[in-house]
Write a structure and sequence with these properties.
Chain lengths: ~325, ~300
């Protein structure tokens, strides 16, 4: 894939945020070269705190900084940013609604060769169940830049999920992301493809394949997982009567879970979830892993047909 | 201290500590649950801090120039609520609502609901890190306010405490003073038997802290130690090895202090006194010191 990794855009956007707002501070846990916070550290060394390999301390320190009026971004890999420090995020950050921005890079299976120990496939489920926490999965570089600005402006805690590999541009430079709004990026009437992160591009590709067969798919970029844009999602569900969700995450508890929970109670239509089945990942090249774990445009096409078949019953 | 209350003399502090102890017993008895043992062991430290040491304004709990206190051992909430009420952050009469549905006085400290509470705690091991974050912010702003924290001794079995200890000395947080409420008991029994934390002083010193050891029920000693801790900043430290160091005040305390049948008894960690026990405990403490009017 060509394009820019969301973690790269994040690192650049942090520097911008630091220039605009003197209260922005950044913490990292010995991964600043990989998370790209090193860019911020170079320009604002006095506002950068390397906390060493001690993530629990990093999260609670960030909470203290937020309580004293700072806007802390705490960065590490997604496997360490939530699962490892869940109690710290729960009590020090989410419960008191402190404005800590947890920037979790290297999320999902596309971490690649490092294998299952480093592939967070459960973080959205963990994040989504915590009250007060806003959960964002930008789809590309432009959306990431805007999401960083939105996170700075948002008073509460944020979980920002970022990827390791380069992803295609969905949006032009200067795109504006708004917390709590999902974005219809292609109109359609037969089925709604609701994706996030790397799967937004897979949904767009699937829509092209489906169009060749006369199926008009609507595509949604659901970059805010929480709070969920219930209004737009109910509208597209009503318009199409069949929904597919697609995410680089377990099929349990993430975007698919959120959409299914909403629709089952408000507007029951078929929801077919594309994601990683209930299992851990493994080592491999990112593209090979996406294929092996069924995170492809082809899988989205098959899911769309299944959802439409269920609709016709 | 602000103008809203005059600094207390040591004799007055002792009476205040007695009133705080009476509140702790009445609150937990009224709630039917809570943690009297570790609240009583911390009562003198908290009384000294809130009535002589901390720069506060009860009418402005969010005053940016205030000193910050983090109760890392969150189960000591009754002691914190008692000093906050006596200090005027909320009415003393509200203490009886501890742990009730809809109360501002949650079972463990909630910074969002209680005026004067600086951190939400209750899951042990996080408060010192939170205090480190506050102290870092103070350093960034070149602020004159200081940060204080109170840790339980059993709490230091949590690994995160030592992550925070490392970070505090690494970032030279001489604006941070922590107390260890070293009462030697935790829920399952003596700390030494459950999981020894010895040698305590050497550990903190090895992590780069300046260590002072005191009797945690000697109000004068508490005041002298906090005063010495305030002089560890780069500008005023008398001894070069103290410069830029955070201070740990290891306070030897007695769990259940002040009530003979509670003292040094692990079972009073998380059990409230019944009506007869409350009466006996209050009689033993004596009523001089006031603070009783609010209780029916």
């Amino acid at each position: 894939m060509s394009g820019t990794a969301t973690r790269e855009a994040y690192g650049e956007a942090l520097v911008e945020a630091g220039r605009k707002n003197p209260n922005v501070v950044v913490l990292d846990a010995d991964l600043s070269a990989s998370t790209k916070t090193a860019l911020f550290a170079r320009e604002f060394p006095e506002r950068f705190f390397n906390m060493g390999i001690a993530e629990a301390n990093m999260i609670s320190v960030a909470a203290g900084l937020a309580a004293a009026g700072k806007i802390p971004f705490a960065s590490t890999f997604a496997v360490f940013a939530l699962g490892r420090v869940y109690d710290q995020v729960r009590l020090s950050v989410a419960y008191p609604k402190l404005g800590v921005k947890i920037a979790a890079s290297h999320a999902g299976i596309t971490v690649g060769e490092d294998g299952a120990s480093h592939q967070a496939l459960e973080d959205l489920a963990l994040a989504r169940v915590l009250p007060n926490l806003t959960v964002i999965v930008p789809a590309d570089a432009a959306e990431t830049r805007s999401a960083v600005e939105a996170a700075v402006a948002h008073p509460g805690p944020v979980y920002l999920r970022l990827g390791r590999i380069a992803v295609p541009d969905i949006y032009p430079a200067g795109h504006t992301y708004r917390i709590g709004r999902v974005d219809i990026i292609k109109e359609g009437r037969d089925v709604a493809l609701v994706g996030c992160g790397v799967m937004v591009d897979a949904c767009l590709q699937a829509a092209v394949t489906l169009a060749a067969e006369g199926i008009m798919a609507l595509v949604v970029n659901a970059s805010t997982i929480k709070p969920l844009d219930t209004e737009t999602l109910l509208t597209v569900a009503a318009r199409t009567g069949a929904v597919v969700t697609a995410e680089e995450h377990s099929i349990i508890g993430g975007l698919g879970g959120a959409v299914a929970e909403l629709l089952s109670g408000e507007l029951p239509v078929p929801v077919v979830r594309v994601g990683v089945d209930d299992r851990f990942g493994q080592s491999g090249k990112p593209a090979e892993l996406l294929e092996a774990y069924g995170l492809t445009a082809r899988a989205v096409v098959a899911a769309a047909k299944k959802a439409m078949a269920l609709k016709r019953r | 201290m602000d103008g809203s209350s005059r600094p207390l003399t040591e004799a007055e502090l002792a009476l205040k500590a007695r009133a705080v102890r009476r509140h702790i017993l009445r609150m937990t008895a009224a709630a039917g649950s809570g943690h009297p043992g570790g609240s009583l062991s911390a009562a003198d430290i908290l009384t000294a801090l809130y009535f002589r040491v901390l720069r506060l304004d009860a009418t402005r709990p969010d005053w940016t120039e205030r000193d910050r206190f983090v109760l890392s051992k969150g189960h000591g909430a009754p002691a914190l609520y008692a000093v906050l009420a006596e200090r005027g952050f909320f009415p003393v009469a509200e203490l009886e609502s501890l742990r009730r549905l809809g109360s501002r006085l949650q079972g463990h400290p909630d910074m969002k609901s209680t005026p004067g509470v600086e951190a939400s705690t209750g899951s042990l091991g996080q408060g010192l890190s939170f205090a480190v974050g506050l102290a870092l912010a103070g350093k960034l702003d070149r602020a004159s306010w200081r940060v204080y924290a109170l840790l339980g001794d059993g709490e230091t079995q949590e690994g995160q405490i030592w992550e925070a200890a490392m970070a505090a000395s690494h970032y030279r947080l001489d604006n941070l003073t922590a107390f260890l409420d070293h009462n030697g008991l935790q829920i399952d029994g003596p700390v030494d038997k459950v999981m020894s934390i010895s040698p305590v002083e050497e550990k903190w010193r090895a992590f780069g802290w300046r260590v002072l050891s005191i009797d945690g029920h000697d109000l004068g000693a508490i005041l002298r130690a906090t005063s010495a801790a305030g002089k560890s900043s780069v500008d005023v430290a008398e001894k070069s090895e103290d410069r830029g160091r955070p201070t740990m005040i290891i306070a030897r305390t007695i769990k259940g202090r002040g009530v003979s049948f509670m003292e040094n008894r692990a079972e009073w960690h998380g059990k409230a006194p019944n009506a007869e026990q409350l009466e006996a405990a209050l009689k033993e403490l004596g009523s001089e010191g006031g603070g009783e009017g609010a209780w029916r």
